[in-house]
Design a protein that fits this description.
Keywords: Glycosyltransferase, Transferase. The chain contains twelve helices and nine strands. The chain is an alpha/beta fold. α1 links the parallel β1 (about 15-20) and β2.
Length: about 325
Amino acid sequence: MTLERVSGTADVRVVAVVVAYNRRDLLVEALDALAAQTHALAGVVVIDNRSDDDSAVVAEEHPIGARVLELNRNTGGAGGFAAGIAHALATFDPECVWLMDDDTIPTPTALAELLRARAEYPEPVALLGSRVVWHDGRDHPMNTPRRRPGATKDEIADSAEVGAVPVRSSSFVSMLVDSRAIRYHGLPIADYFIWNDDFEFSARLLRRGIGLYVPSSVVEHRTKVFGATDTDPGERFYFEVRNKVWMLTRSSALSPEERILYTGASVRRWVRTFAGSTRRDVLRKAALKGVRDGVFRSPRPTAQVLEGSGVPSSEVQDVVSPPVRHDGG
């Protein structure tokens, strides 16, 4: 796929997609922050993932004028972002989609800085991510990317020229994605539900595309605790294991060499998770179930997962499904 080079930022149409679930007060703050962006948004889509609180109501009543889509069941972050992206593309036809959870609070220039780096980079950029900090200003370990392995000197230099770092993956905690890349590579895989959905999605777009980490674009990730994803996850460890097996064996996001490297990295992370856990019996049971389902099941098509959830099926079907991995990568 070839993306044409962009120039300037003033006329770039960006739609923000916010996935909300039971954090109505943080959602209000997130929408306030979106309204305060120095680069005005062309629209905001809020996906309410069957919240038990009044998240949908406060989103409807917020002066930013968001389009609120209430799903009739919780589809997880993966399903929420897939639904939100599809709805944003169908409703607004933007040049870029800006993705975030309801506990993401962007600073006023967060979007403008992403667009600046996108415009100044000498080649087309598929996606860009922000610097993610906790509420005390420390870099959040859950959302801090590493420089792209194997990046060339030219890629590193070109990125540095625009105040960025080349990356291989990015987080849904402030990810700006070119709509053309989404239409070519497909939506996030809704069946992931939670965990590794943004890793798979961004790595798929960046296997041959350009991704930038832009430290001058700053957002707060207001998690309850400060820590990485290997903090004791309990029963949710099932999704980490199952989805990582799916990504390593069924996704087109990684090359054969990368699958070997990421398998080793995943095993090391799982060992650390077990070592730091106070409920190893829970993790063991979740891990065994995750391996079983990861090996013997495949993720269902996103359109099938979201069918009957409340998002128009035609919107999801209009965006291509991710390509199936063939042997050899």
